[in-house]
Design the sequence.
């Protein structure tokens, strides 16, 4: 079993829809949770970052962490065609110093006008 | 800041040839990472450096792969000899190295080995 599971999609939604992207994980030691967005032929870029449990909102984006269920989500409100990209979840442990990020497979999202 | 710079953007080579990928990290970042991305395996960490020293190369698939970081502003990933199964997009990333510090990725080198 992979440490991080993410449905690769593709997910196709109409403009204006609410999008829900999800990842599950098996390692309860993960403390840092991130979402990266990757446009075609570009490198991933950090979109959202949360530490431990709870919600974090940034504009149209909300990141949610449920450590009891080992499940994280990214919600996109009022989705736009410019949101069409691959979204990768990533997570790491905390033990001082650098800890290797474990990435999900990425979910490909297409928002059509 | 120009971000992480990788070259070349595309590389097409024949099986058995040596391939060298290059990376310039963001100035001031003390960690540098090499990743490989394929449809089948997603984003895989190959090796990472801290202050120019290789820390973990457990992701390097075989002895055909080697990486160096001669100074804080330059790193190379070399494949010798290359094989068709090495075809992938190779990303370099840098960061400040704290667990809450994001990785900054370059735009990758798309390698095709025929």
Sequence:
């Amino acid at each position: 079993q992979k440490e991080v599971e993410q449905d690769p999609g593709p997910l196709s939604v109409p403009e204006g829809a609410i999008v829900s992207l999800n990842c599950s994980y098996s390692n309860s030691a993960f403390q840092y949770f991130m979402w990266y967005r990757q446009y075609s032929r570009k490198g991933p870029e950090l979109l959202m970052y949360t530490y431990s449990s709870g919600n974090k909102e940034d504009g149209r984006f909300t990141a949610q962490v449920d450590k009891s269920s080992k499940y994280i989500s990214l919600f996109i409100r009022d989705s736009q065609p410019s949101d069409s990209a691959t979204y990768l979840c990533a997570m790491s442990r905390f033990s001082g110093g650098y800890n290797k990020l474990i990435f999900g497979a990425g979910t490909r999202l297409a928002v059509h006008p | 800041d120009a971000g992480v710079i990788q070259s070349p953007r595309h590389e097409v080579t024949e099986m058995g040839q040596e391939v060298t990928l290059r990376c310039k990290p963001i100035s001031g970042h003390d960690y540098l990472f090499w990743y490989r991305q394929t449809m089948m395996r997603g984003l895989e960490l190959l090796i990472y450096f801290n202050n120019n020293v290789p820390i973990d190369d457990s992701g390097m698939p075989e002895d055909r792969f080697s990486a160096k970081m001669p100074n804080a502003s330059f790193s190379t990933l070399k494949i010798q000899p290359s094989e068709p199964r090495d075809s992938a997009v190779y990303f370099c990333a840098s960061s400040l190295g704290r667990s809450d510090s994001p990785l900054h990725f370059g735009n990758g080198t798309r390698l095709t080995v025929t």
Remarks:
- The mean pLDDT of chain A is 92.
- Chain A touches chain B at residues 31-32, 34, 36, 41-46, 49, 51, 88, 92-94, 97-101, 103-106 (CB under 8 Å).
